[in-house]
């Protein structure tokens, strides 16, 4: 498993943020979108929000690549429809390149402790 973290902003409008969250509740999500995520090799995906900033954690299988997912998405009309709908709520980060949405974040710190109880 490989983990990626990504960020994107929503438009700073409480009504749009509420509607974006509505579409991301399990009962409102599109099954075709969930399937496309799984088919791309994404085993787990979580999205968190603070204010209008979104933070995504993706855990992927060994055969996942952003290029492959992009090609699959481009060939899937339902994914294109979903992305058009989502763009109503989203806005690029100030440092995004033209047309870039979710941006991969750089890990700058990690604390990984293993407590060993075998010391006598």
TrEMBL record:
Gene3D superfamilies: 3.30.70.100. SUPFAM superfamilies: Dimeric alpha+beta barrel (SSF54909). GO terms for molecular function: racemase and epimerase activity, acting on carbohydrates and derivatives. Pfam families: rhaM. This is L-rhamnose mutarotase.
